[in-house]
Amino acid sequence: MDSNKFTVADATGNTAIAGSLAVSGATSLTGGLSMASLSISGPATLDGGLSMDSDKFTVADSTGNTVIAGTLAVSDTAALSGLASLNGGIVVDSNKFSVADATGNTAIAGTLTVSGAAIASGAVQLNGGLTMDTSKFTVADATGNTAIAGTLESSGATTLSSTLSVSSATILSSQVTIKGASALSSSMAVHGSSSLSSTLDVKKAATLSSSLDVKGASSLSSSLDVKASATLSSSMEVKGAATLSSTLEVSESVTLSSTMEVSKETTLSSNLEVRGATVMSSTLSVQDAVSLTSSLSVSGSGIFAAGVQPSAVARTATDGGTGSGAIAHGTTFVSVTSSGSSKVITLPPSSNSASSCPVGHTVRLFSSSAYSLQTSSSTSVALQGVTGNTCTTVVALNTLLECHCVTSSQWTCTTTSLSGVAGAQGSPTCTSRRSMLSGLLD
Question: Residue 327: is it exposed, middle or buried by C-beta count within 10 angstroms (0-12/13-18/19+)?
Answer without folding.
Answer: buried
